[in-house]
């Protein structure tokens, strides 16, 4: 049975936020597994432009200070998105992170992107799974001494729920890895929209694309799923079917977690923030009303346990209205399942337990 340490956000004048967070981290044993000089990756989602539900950077400053006192050198990190936008390459992504409060002069740690300038700096690691045989992840994750995941708990349009497992599997994947998780086939081609500019052909690392006699795009070779063609086309001639089989997507995501965590230099720690519990991912350019009250902060070395504990606590909390929740929900009802009924039961946590990623059985230790 895994231990999940929990703080319910209560503070006092003599025990403010920073001291409560320090107590939570110390009780989890985080400082005991850090060596002086360790480079510690703080894996976080900086939030899409227009989103307001992402983790407040100031709430994370006590974690930075705690790690520094233990002798570590922490840095915030994420990877580029597969879709086009401000988070699609590290220059715009870094400026967005700074606008959202992730400025080293404010939070005491720099921002570095694990997959390089354009999301192409990656490491491919083997994994003998049912759905994947390898995982493509941001290269820096294999170089860092330790990783601490900082996870905003919320809903997700495809996975149904986003917590530690979502932040690790999708968040640590390179562009090619994200493509690998989302789809098992090549992108869809729409020759009728093709202008014959040839930019996608230049971008295709596998040399799989070509133009036919009419100057329209065709698949002339074996696609490796890097996603560069999709990102380069400005005319809609190349698309991705994001609504792939949800169960397959979830299990591929979970196997990515296992591959990543098995190859880190040392075990990771996972901190779930049950605050601003919105129905959508922070990748959206907006944040809808929360589905339940703020509940607290959890930390565990087990990503399955900390996600299961978060789900259990959210379902036990009273639903909030007005929100996107269907009318008539009561305490104890599954809020995220009500929002995304097509998602697998347990949001894949049963499969995660089956492959040895962690345990759904946990002991909640409240500080």
UniProtKB/TrEMBL annotation:
Highest taxon in the source lineage: Bacteria
Which molecular function terms from Gene Ontology are attached? Answer: 4 iron, 4 sulfur cluster binding; metal ion binding
Give residue ranges for domain 4Fe-4S ferredoxin-type: 185-214, 215-243
Instruction: Say yes or no: keyword Metal-binding present.
Output: yes
- PROSITE patterns to which the protein is assigned, alphabetical: 4FE4S_FER_2
- State the UniProt keywords alphabetically: 4Fe-4S, Iron, Iron-sulfur, Metal-binding
What is the protein's name according to its record?
4Fe-4S ferredoxin iron-sulfur binding domain protein
